[in-house]
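4.2 Preliminary Data

To establish feasibility before requesting continued support, the project team ran the inverse folding procedure on a target of 108 residues. The structure was first converted into the token representation described in Section 3, and no sequence information of any kind was made available to the design step. The complete token record follows.
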């Protein structure tokens, strides 16, 4: 199950609505570019503090921006959605894998 969230209250509501662990909380489309990578990193931290008993999969939508995807990985975000050219995606996926993350290319 995928829910797009942009705020802590939205994320908390999604967790309450879907009590199972198979929930993925996705940022709004292209949020890395429009809202910034740090915004989503801070949302992740706030959600962990507010809901310490849950560890949902948060996914930052980086659009086609491989540079923002790498920045997200460096800030500790593990799940990145990316629609970049294959060569860029492969490089970002390699960096993500080395840092315990993944790049999602097929669920938009």
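Position-by-position output of the design step:
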């Amino acid at each position: 199950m995928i829910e797009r969230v942009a705020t802590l209250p939205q994320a908390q509501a999604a967790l309450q609505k879907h009590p199972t662990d198979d929930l993925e909380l996705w940022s709004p489309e292209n949020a890395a570019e429009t809202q910034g990578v740090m915004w989503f990193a801070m949302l992740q931290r706030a959600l962990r503090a507010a809901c310490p008993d849950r560890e949902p999969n948060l996914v930052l939508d980086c659009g086609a921006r491989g540079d923002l995807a790498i920045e997200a990985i460096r800030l500790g975000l593990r799940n990145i959605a990316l629609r970049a050219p294959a060569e860029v995606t492969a490089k970002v996926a390699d960096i993500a894998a080395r840092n315990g993350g993944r790049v999602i290319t097929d669920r938009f």
